[in-house]
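Pair request: fold both.
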Amino acid sequence: MQKAEIGCMNRLRCLAMAALACICLAMATACGRTPDSVLIQGPIMGTTYTVRVQPEAGLPAGPELQAQIQERLETLNARLSTWVDSSDVVRFNRAEADLWFPVSSDTASVVSAAQRIAQASEGAFDITVGPLVDLWGFGPLGQPERVPQAAEIERLLAATGYQRLEVRTQPPALRKSHPELSIDLSAIAKGYAVDELVVLLDRQGYLDFMVEIGGEVRTRGLRPDGRPWRIALEKPLRGSREVLRVIPLSDRAVASSGDYRNYFEYDGRRYSHTIDPRTGWPVAHGLGAASVVADTCMNADAWATALMVLGADAGLRLAQEQDLAANLIVATEAGFDELMTEAYQALANP
């Protein structure tokens, strides 16, 4: 059997490309060269993070602030990752069914938000899709030797479904009703981590800053030049990078999901890393990318994935129903079409 040709040859490079693909930061001329701004960067969650703050008198900066940021991110990664054996997620996935499994408040908060969006999207977003992500080779197990058989997919579908998962926040715990059910927080954890860094910086007293993890962005206040932060959305192109649109962003978050960086090819067919939880198969519609602007990065992150699963028509309908600021990018023979909700149009064309 012919082995699959991997679109991204190793996880770190794959995630780094995916992170930069959906959203890039268009701030080089605005504040990248501003001596008064502080730039903090580092690796986390298989990708990278960037924090840019405008210094405030008496507040921690430089190595002290970076140490606080790194500590919080490493704590979150240790709790939410499917790649860390001791994480809440991995231990819950191995736990017995029908019993409440204690987790951290972070994990319970993320799962609670995920369950709300799963219900609102009627399962288009579903963190119990983890076994199917693994089956298709986009999880810790790595790429399979072949495309999964329909019978394998159906067997795992029987063990998935957000309805089989319960969460409580006091005391924080999870419970599953099927012994093989497992969760994967990859489509929401980075957004939550961004929000948590915003909380950290707010508590420190910072007024103007930008936080980005793996392409998911949230801002507070203004840039050093007194203007709104400007975030560039990329065209969903394979093998090259071009800016599609630049949007102003103050005190809000933006996240994107796309199928053009993380995928594999087998027998001439491309398989996206975005798995439809309702069918167990990678999405195969014409939607190239979905971007959502929201008050929190966690919500933007999860909703972008849900819309990517649904496709252009169903995704746009749901985004309008949910009053989301969403932009769906559809590849055409002539280039790209943008389908925007009314809330997004108001943002993109102030």
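--- second member of the pair ---
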Amino acid sequence: MDLEILDNKVSIFNFLKRNPGLNIYSIGDLDDFYWPKTTWYAMMDGNTVFSIAMLYEGQDIPTLLLFYDADSKSALQLLIKIKSLLPFKFNAHFSPGLKDLFGRQNIIKDYGVNYKMILKKVVKEPDYSNINKLTTNDLSKIENFYTYSYAENWFDPCMLETNMYYGYFLNDILVGVSGIHVFSKKYKVAALGNIAVHPDFRGQLIGYKITSVLCYELQKCVDIIGLNVKADNEFAIRCYKKVGFEIIGTYDECCIENNFKS
């Protein structure tokens, strides 16, 4: 098998759609909004793709996504081939076992194990009480909310332009937000993100309500809705299961210092 850098969206999508739940973020990044910030590496034999890794450079620290369904061997071979091509420092989302290639001493920060979850049922029309769509006019409220409620959260304000962010308001105070990290009408996928509830209002089903509204609206225009969640976040996992999500896989998230040593 040989290493190739792919720039053909059709070839990439045909591979990724074999397991759309596992590859939902990568599929979303085929969208024109994200595509210019991506590089796609593939392990190939002739015209057959055996593994794909995607490097996203739209953030201060690039992120590498590499997942395997059943073929861990080709994924590992791909990672070995591209190791010297990767940035000195990058975040990684890897199927289990792949991060070991870089050595424990080069893992700057280990964020632990995460679950991939996919919505498995149709969400019926939910209760919209106290819930409003968020726009760029709400940006200052949103940023203040995240500063207090979810400080480690990564939020890109331009995602508000998708019209897929919802807020829960009590007495005109924003106490809950649900949104997306990936949204592509063309490829029919969406990945939830930036979901949080103000600490003083947790335990009141606000997270469930705003996530249900978001999923109800998303299912009108996409076929696959997924999300990533930390495996030890039991409260969030219960909330997502209540909405209708199921766990379909795990992955490791870490920040790697790539010094090109084996």
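Observation on the second member. The longest helix spans residues 206-218.
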